């Protein structure tokens, strides 16, 4: 992880020892990654002008970009990026200064912008654009560009939100085992 993890203004990422981080990633600055999470190839996570927090058992898949918004006079806290527990972020997603609750699935290629709050148990469909400052209500599927609240999640989809995270914990453990 020598070239993968770096400091910014003297602040280094804090990464639990159980986390898998692919060697092709770049994780910089005020980034904290909790237990049993994983960060897959070509992910960039820049906690340079605000903080990034990734909860337990969450996975950030290939080619995703995680960034934040600087604090300013108009927005004294800026927009940090907060990702809860058991979150699956699909391939090539862009998460910028938003807050994701627990048990979220962000479909491949989705973009979630500044000030968005995603409550627990939400499915964001592939390619969805979530414009700034929206709130996504728990228990629903959101799709489209711009996003629209499509329908309530069914029982199988609700169960899959947690199972997807579990699947990636198993996979990251296999990668860590092979590396040793």
UniProtKB/TrEMBL annotation:
Q: Which InterPro entries match?
A: Hexapep (IPR001451), LbH_gamma_CA-like (IPR047324), Transf_Hexapept/Carb_Anhydrase (IPR050484), Trimer_LpxA-like_sf (IPR011004)
**Name this protein carries in UniProt:** Gamma carbonic anhydrase family protein
Q: Which SUPFAM superfamilies does the record match to this protein?
A: Trimeric LpxA-like enzymes (SSF51161)
Q: What organism is listed for this UniProt entry?
A: Alteromonas mediterranea (strain DSM 17117 / CIP 110805 / LMG 28347 / Deep ecotype)
* Superkingdom assignment: Bacteria
CDD domains in UniProt: LbH_gamma_CA_like (cd04645)
């Amino acid at each position: 992880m020598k070239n993968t993890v770096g400091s910014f203004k003297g602040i280094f990422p804090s990464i639990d020892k159980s986390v898998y981080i692919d060697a092709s990633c770049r994780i910089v600055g005020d980034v904290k990654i909790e237990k049993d999470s994983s960060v897959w190839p070509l992910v960039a996570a820049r906690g340079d002008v605000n903080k990034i927090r990734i909860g337990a058992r969450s996975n950030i898949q290939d080619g995703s970009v995680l960034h934040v918004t600087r604090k300013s006079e108009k927005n004294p806290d800026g927009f940090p990026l907060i990702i809860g527990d058991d979150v699956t972020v699909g391939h090539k997603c862009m998460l910028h200064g938003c807050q994701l609750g627990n048990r979220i699935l962000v479909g491949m290629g989705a973009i979630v912008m500044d000030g968005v709050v995603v409550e627990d148990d939400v499915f964001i469909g592939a390619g969805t654009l979530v414009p700034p400052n929206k709130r996504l209500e728990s228990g629903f599927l959101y799709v489209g560009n711009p996003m629209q609240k499509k329908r309530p999640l069914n029982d199988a989809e609700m169960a899959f939100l947690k199972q997807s995270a579990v699947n990636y914990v198993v996979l990251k453990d296999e990668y860590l085992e092979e590396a040793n």
